[in-house]
Amino acid sequence: MKKKSKNTNLKNNKIKPIPNFKNEDEERDFWDTHDATDYFDMEHPIKLDLSKLKPTTETISLRLPAYLLMRIKEIANSRDVPYQSLMKIFLAERVERELQAKISAK
User: Fold this and answer.
1) Which of 13, 27, 42, 86 is the most buried (most CB within 10 A)?
2) Is the same domain home to 59 and 99?
């Protein structure tokens, strides 16, 4: 007995084109209401190189005590990196540590 394919579009070779989106919200809404198997050939995936993509960033305002900012700048200077980059590294490391501790506690 022949197994039925979940994606009837593959059987008919009618993969729908993905529309162009104005922004991420519009794209998110689209995928919340549409089946991805109608838009992709799941039988023949393609390899994508996403290594050059940058994560989405947001600018924030952060008030720090002057002594703390001075210490961060000193450490950054000794490592020859911009202090903002060092702060991102410190924050990412701490967040990862907190998440790992949370997982370990379960």
Assistant:
1) 86
2) yes
